[in-house]
Structures are given as structure tokens and as C-alpha cells.
Please model this.
Amino acid sequence: MSDYVLVTRKFFPETIDFLKERFNVFDNQKDISFDRRQLIDHMRDAIGAQISTSEIVDTDLLDRCKKLRVISNTAVGYDNIDIEACTERGVMVTNTPGVLDETVADYALGLTIAACRQIPRYEMYLRERKWEKSPFTDLLSRDVNGSVFGFMGFGRIGQAIARRAISFRGSVLYHTRNALPRSVEERLSATFVSKQELLEKSDIIILILPHTPETHHFIGEQELSLMKKDAVLVNMARGGIVDDTALVEALEKGSIFSAGLDVYENEPDINPDFFRLRNVVLSPHLGSATIKTRKAMAMKAAVNLAKALDGEIPPDLVNPGCLA
Model:
């Protein structure tokens, strides 16, 4: 097969049909997990690829797959792709912003409530048939309503979560590289603060920032030590932003109340120490995992790929410098 498009994961049939109407397609509807060698072998003669965050696109792969013109990432984040190397080689990179904001915000709020109220822990208590009476001073948790919500990162998804937090009579702090326009702050009753102030004052800290070399282990031992003893940490962003080893230690010691995690370092091979902790709610990276949202993401990625290969500028181009 010459001049084909590679689809590295199982996607919805309508996505594959859309691409097959336009290109020769090498699909993976059996959802085989490609190892590194297989990924390069399959991509070597592809002119474009629709991938997931599981596939790593680096200089080695790009140098072996010289026909590539487009990498369409079926996700908002793209820390699995060496953007600079793609730009240098004229390879377009696209992502799928916008379509998953509200869905991820819903899930973040659910994870926050579960971590604050310890719902999975007490469900297990019930399943283990330990409930013999209704205690008054045991099986306690912490309130969500009236909390100070602190957002590390405050883009579209962070702001969508903040809109929900307001309905809990919460106040909103946020930390980003630069303060947002006053109109945004007023709409969300949000206050820009330093990283340290956010850590010290927040009851619930929600991470929703990209994973970059600058944000790797953005939350580590020092940051955890600044948090309130009854604080809750929620990571909806990317593994690697949190030092998982340091977080395990903080949860073990009771330095913070609990955590809700949808992402991890080295996922899916996460730190096994998390499994023995009762004060952490674990989720296997499912923030965007609804039927409607995942279908929209897959089709958005396919449209980006098709437009790029048809000679158009795709709507969600991450690296416009590649066109220079």
C-alpha cells in the first residue's frame, strides 16, 4: 500500500469510514498494542497518522518515517509528541481542543466529590459487610460546599470546572504564568495568586495544566508540605505533573486529607503503593470517556488529518511554524 494513512488505535467505525472515503487507510480496529518497532514499521511509509497519547513521536521515529506530513493527536494534550522536531521537519501536528471541555469538567467535579466525601472507601466498607450501625463520629469526610478551590492552570477546562465550583458556594483561586483578563476573573469570581499562596490557602487543589519540562513534578514534596492538612489534591491533567512517590508518602502520613487521580506517572504502569491507600480515589484516565465526547474527538482528529493532507491548514494546528 502506497501513500496511506495509519490509524494506530481502534476508533469508531464512522471515523474509519470517513478516512477510507478519502485515503488508503491502514487501520487498527483489532486494537493491537504496537510496540516501538511495530509502530515505526507501520508508520514508515505513511503520509499521515491519527494517533493517541500512547504513541510517542520523537526524533528517532521522525527520522525513520520520512514520508510523514501530518500527526493528528486524538487528545488535547500532546506531550507525547516532540513538537520542535516535527516543526523542523515540516510535519504538521494537530490536536482536539474544545470538544471535551465540559465532559472533563464534569468528571473532575465527580472525582473531587468522591475524594472529599470518600465515596469509594465507604462503598468498600459496605461491600465488606462492616456496616452494623450508623456511627455519628466515625466514617467522616470533608465538605465540598464552601471550599476554596485552587486551580493550577486555568484554561478552557479549568474555567469550566470553576463554573461548577461556584455553584458549591466556593471561592476560586488560580495560578498560571500570567493573570487572565479582568473580565474572565470577574465572570468566575476568580483571583490570581502565586503558587505558594494557592497551595497554602486552597481546600481543594485541581491540576489542569499541560505537562512540559517546566511543569514536571510541579507538585512534589515541598509543595505537598505547604498544603492544608485537610486539603484534597485532584489531578485531571497529566501524569508527571505530580511526583507520585511524594504524594504516596503525604497520603500515608496524613499530610493531606485525600487525592483524586485520573492520571499518573508512567501510566498504565502506575505506582503500586497507591493501591493500598484508602484515602485516594483512582481512575484510569477516563476524563473524556463518554460516547458522545470520544466520538467527537475521533472525528475532529480525522478531519484535521484530512484537511492537512488535502493541502489546507487544519483547524487545530499546534505548530504553525512548520508551514514556514
Remarks:
- The longest strand covers residues 46-51.
